[in-house]
Amino acid sequence: MDERESLYFDTISLADSEAAAVAAAHRKSLSQSRNTIYHSAVDLAGDGETRNSMRLGNSMGWQYQQPGYRQSTALEHLNGNGHGNGNGAGGVMDQADAAIAAQMQMLGIQNGRTHLPTGLGLGIAGGGAGGAAVGGAGGGRPGLGGPGDDEVSRCLLRQSSTVSHKDKKLPITYSQWKLRTYRRFNDGKRSVDFVLAYNGEDLIEEHRRKREIFEANLQREGLELEHYVGQRVHFIKLHAPLQVLYRYAEILKIKLPLRPIPGQEQIVEESEHEFKSCLTRMCRSLFSSVQLNTALFPEREARIHLEFSQKYLELYDTEHPNFFDASTRYSIINFILQRQHFVEGEETADNLGVEKLIQDGIYTCAYTLHDKEERDRLLKEWANIGKWKNLQPLDHVKDYFGAKVALYFAWLGFYTQMLIPVSIIGIICFIYGFITWNSDPISRDICNDNGTTIMCPQCDRSCDYWKLSETCTSSKFNYLIDNSMTVVFAFVMAIWAVVYLEFWKRYSAGLVHRWGLTGFNHNVEHPRPQYLAKISRSKKIAQKASAQGGLPNALDPDVPFWSIKFLPNFTSYSIMVLFISISIIAIAAIIIYRMAQRASSSILGSENSMTYKVMVLPMTAGIIDLVVISILDLVYSKLAVKLTNYEYCRTQTEYDESLTIKYYVFQFVNYYSSLFYIAFLKGKFVGYPAKYNTVLGFRQEECNPGGCLMELCMQLVIIMVGKQIVNAVIEMLVPYLMRTIKRYIQHYNWYRRQHEDEPRLVPCNQFTEDYNLLPMENDSLYAEYLEMVVQYGFIILFSLAFPLAPLLALINNAIEVRLDAIKMLRFFRRPVGMRARDIGVWHNIMTVVTRIAVASSAMIIAFSTNLIPKLVYKHSTGDHELNNYLNFTLAYFNTQNFQSPPISTSSQYANITECRYTEFRNPHWDEHPYKRPMIYWKILTIRLTFIVVYQNIISMLQGILRWAVPDVSGRLLKRIQRENFLLREHIIEYEKHQAQAQLQVQIPTTKESETALHQRPQRRNDGAGDDATSYV
Known about the structure:
Number of helices: 31
Oligomer: single chain
Strand content: 5-15%
Structural class: alpha+beta
Radius of gyration: 39 Å
């Protein structure tokens, strides 16, 4: 494609270098020819079929022939005989001949074939005075194109033959042509701001009529349209003139940059303390390798923004090339597209917006175009895994994708950077566990037991006795995460969470101010078209409106809650509770599977049954849990959208918040249920050998003597890491496969229809290339946010069970930032830019999760670790070395008290009279056998006290941090206040100047007033008649 386009347009350039001007009709036709021939290739509609061949002289030995070109209707009005004589005006200069030959040699087409477009009919001839004839016969060898009946050739012939040599212009290059036509209208000046696509083979009259009405309404709003026809998929290019942008920028209350105002240069940040300045210089030199390339991404100057008003148009920096950046232009046009009717005479909310047209199949899609130059720069410097350690060009991302997408990447990058300190602390805690591995008294006593401690069976009848020493390996691994550093790490994570959330608010405030979005209020948002459509279809609202003598939309935004909104909301949340219950049932089924597997493994009589139960079985159950979670995740994502669409969400922000809450509540239960079970329920209500508590006839699962923290760690690693791997594969592989399959289907359809003379879409300009990309759905960012917020929950809720969880999240996120960028730039169409001042309800969700994490950590430390039992043992016995602590935690049971003794007792356990189990209960020889001893109640009291004290201390510290770290830094607050003051003064001065200028125009001078007064006619009183008048 590139070679034939380059050759063609370089040829046009050479012809134009000898031509200063051409008739307007010819220019327009030629522009249409360029687009039609080179972007449609073999699918142009027309009458009849022409076969064109291009032959070069024998010296070059090159011949090209391709059938199947159908003459375009876009060229039918061109005329001319196309014959040149080689000596007169019909020939092109010898230098043009030489230049064209040089171009063809440079493209490597001397021997072989090239892909010049069929139907061009370009003649290159040697010999004679003419040297070359375009579209006709030269004076020498025969020209390309045979008889010269190609209309483009005749047009070129007339251009080169009717214009004098003194009017010359520089030739157009191929790159200049691509810039002019790939993202421009045919005039090469107006940019393509939006594209509508529809099936050109759609012959339904109603569809055609709705398109005409819709497009006429767009033109009535001031948008400029240009049709691109001739392909099976037809396109409508949209352009918004400045006046339209001005009008809607005022309607949407968009803040735009002002010209420099007096005093703006004096807004300088306060000088830092000498120590802080030194520290800043050291940090900059230390992290110089991660800085952005300022040559590619220059720093933006600080500018003052004001809500746009045409009243103050002179104050705005309208001459700035980026005054209306791409995201702002696209958002304005998208707003217009969403609010235009397409049924004449029935302008209801149900016949509104381009989304409805796409749903009905009238249009296939509506999208914005990628900017190839900026896209390539972002792909090279930002969407590149090799640049994982570099900072992100957030200002340029905001200009390209809009503030909403840019804030997501800013938040993800900030969150990733904040993981660095806690990752280091987690590594230190893990290393501490390795260093003190052999000093743990519990694992040491278990491994040195030598089989003397016999444990009771872990299931009824089918399970056998087992030796405590079988859990030696698992007890050592358990110590890695259950040591004295556990409480320290939990405390650090609780403080880190608040610091992260508070400093994110400060950081985002600076970004939002720099982007001119400070003070952006979601309350000024306009109602969603879907919301208006629901109102228009509601009979209750219509009755209320008719009673009030108004339209249904008159109730907007005050739609009654109890009579209108209550039932949809109640139904939506009831269904949500139902599916949450389904998720809990699925987790319970996996738990029962684990109980059954413990019994079945004992029946099989494996020698390593305890190793299997302690290590292998939890891993297999975790993998099954991950599969179930992934399946339910797909169901929930679809269900949440359906339920939210059923509700009455007035603005897009309300819709986003409602959908976000449903997404996260589903996933909270889905991902965390099994972890909460292991942390808080497993092994806590088992009973004792004479009276076990059962579920569906199965005994509840027990923890090994070292506790359940090791199993919680394995479950966390499997779900967290497995989820990250699955999501990474899905995010990159699925879009790639979908795009590949889509291209294959298009190629297959073209191949199948080639003999039927049916058209195909050739992706050789920007809007056809982007048409073949995947659509960027409105809820695409939800999935990205959800993945990271669920990961945040893993870290903050359960990371004390696995101190390396922040490190794994850090590694994943460093790659995730780049993968998300690659996905959005390579596989998806460019999204419509949307304004946002924060990450929305996601911040509130993380705040709630942080508060839940305080209670979660306190309960895990109190009930799932050995911290408090160890402290009580030390205090009660004075054994600070914990030499007999293991025996302290094990109770005795008389095997004769079994209600259902084991059936398959091996010979080594035949004469067992007592066994041990992990519980605080009286031995069988006590006067109150198997009852709770006083030490149990003492430990329970201290555990509950610890939870209360821990929560209050951490909550108090978190509150102090929230108070000490304001949402907006002091410097930024002073800057905002100073800018607002200067802005008010500047507007007052401008208003005063305008009023004075208007006063000078409207009030005449005193002299002119007196002259007019003296020349007023007055009636005489001398009886000269009624009609006599005189001038005083």
